[in-house]
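Practice problem: predict the structure.
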Amino acid sequence: MAERAPRILLADDEQSIQTLLSFPLRKDGYEVTTASDGREALARFNEGKFDLVVLDVMMPRMDGLEVCRRIRARNTVPIIMLTAKAEEIDKVLGLELGADDYITKPFSLREFRSRVRAALRRAGMQTQAEPDSEDQPLAVHELEIDPAKRAVRVRDGGVDLTFVEFEILNALARNPGRVFTRDMLLTRIWGDSAYRDPRTIDVHIRHLREKLEKDAKDPEYLFTVRGVGYRFRDEAAR
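Answer:
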């Protein structure tokens, strides 16, 4: 029996943008559901299972940032934000609220389709990949990571991470002491670092520290290497 086509929720209040983006997605074999405002987007999301959500930031009735916040509060589905604003605040806010990626308008259809494929590929990694060493549970100090279940516990309590947060943590934890530049992490998580602001990684690292560390300003697990990037706690060096 053939696997079902990936389902994408596309929310944008401009009909021309909906048509422009949904046509190539359907041509690529995806099932696309559209919404014209934030409240409709939430209603459509509640009606079924989606593999990816694409949200315009500026929408009537409820903006994309609020929709992102509400979806992320109960679901880890990948979310791509579309923003027409050049201000960095929109990008940062989207990431703060749990978005996995963002694209600034205007953008090419080629870039958009590439971002969609990358997001869906990341979301399907855990079911498509053969078991290997990176699928084995890992315990460091009071932190436990189980890639097969995509579960994280710290100090005996469960921690809810977004898809990207989990991937960054797992990548760093599997290489204790190794310094990863922001571009290295972008490439590892998204497949490349093109079109992406390296500061995206800073936002995700800050979220991870807030969720994992007793004191985010005095971390036990995720360390900044100034001018370079980040590294994970190295037990052997202690």
